[in-house]
C-alpha cells in the first residue's frame, strides 16, 4: 500500500517554489490549524447529531449548566462564549424551539433578559457531554505530550492575537 502524500506538505513546496519560502511555515501553520478544526468539528458534530445540537448550541447549554443558577444574562453568555450577541440569540431561538432553554426577565434589571436552562436542557447537555467525553475528548488522536504542546502553542497564538 502506498502512503498518501500530505497536501499541506505539497502546498509548502509550492509556496517555496513560488518564492514565498519566508512565509511558508506561517502558511503551513494556518492551513494545518484550519484543517485540524475541520477534522475535530466533524467528529464533534457527528457526536452531537443525535441530540440535535451544533457545537455552539452545546457550548451555550454547557455554560448554563455550569452556572450557579442555571441562568445568565444573554450579554454575559455572549462574553463568556466569545461570540457576538446575535449568534447567542440565534442559538437561544433554536434551543427554545426544542424546549432546552427559556428566556426570562431579569428579576432586578428590566433592561436585561436572562437565558435559563430547562430540566430537559440539563439532561440533554449531560447526555451530550457523556457522548463527547467518550467519543471525542478521550481520544483526539494525539498523546498527552502532544496535546500539552498543542494547547501551549494555541494559548500563545490566542494571547498574541489579543484573545485574552
From TrEMBL:
Pfam families: MarR. It comes from the Bacteria. Residues 1-159 form the HTH marR-type domain. One of its GO terms (molecular function) is DNA-binding transcription factor activity. One of its GO terms (biological process) is response to stress. InterPro entries: HTH_MarR-typ, MarR/SlyA-like, WH-like_DNA-bd_sf, WH_DNA-bd_sf. Gene3D superfamilies: Winged helix-like DNA-binding domain superfamily/Winged helix DNA-binding domain (1.10.10.10). This is MarR family transcriptional regulator.
Amino acid at each position: 500500500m502506498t502512503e498518501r502524500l500530505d497536501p499541506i506538505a505539497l502546498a509548502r513546496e509550492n509556496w517555496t517554489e513560488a518564492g514565498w519560502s519566508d512565509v511558508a511555515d506561517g502558511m503551513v501553520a494556518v492551513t494545518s490549524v484550519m484543517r485540524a478544526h475541520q477534522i475535530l468539528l466533524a467528529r464533534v458534530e457527528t457526536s452531537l447529531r443525535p441530540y440535535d445540537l451544533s457545537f455552539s448550541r452545546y457550548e451555550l447549554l454547557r455554560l448554563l449548566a455550569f452556572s450557579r443558577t442555571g441562568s445568565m444574562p444573554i450579554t454575559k453568555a455572549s462574553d463568556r462564549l466569545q461570540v457576538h450577541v446575535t449568534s447567542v440569540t440565534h442559538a437561544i431561538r433554536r434551543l427554545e424551539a426544542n424546549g432546552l432553554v427559556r428566556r426570562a426577565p431579569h428579576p432586578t434589571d428590566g433592561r436585561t433578559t436572562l437565558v435559563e436552562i430547562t430540566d430537559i436542557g440539563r439532561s440533554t447537555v449531560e447526555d451530550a457531554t457523556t457522548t463527547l467525553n467518550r467519543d471525542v475528548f478521550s481520544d483526539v488522536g494525539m498523546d498527552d505530550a502532544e496535546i500539552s504542546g498543542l494547547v501551549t502553542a494555541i494559548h500563545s497564538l490566542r494571547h498574541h492575537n489579543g484573545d485574552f
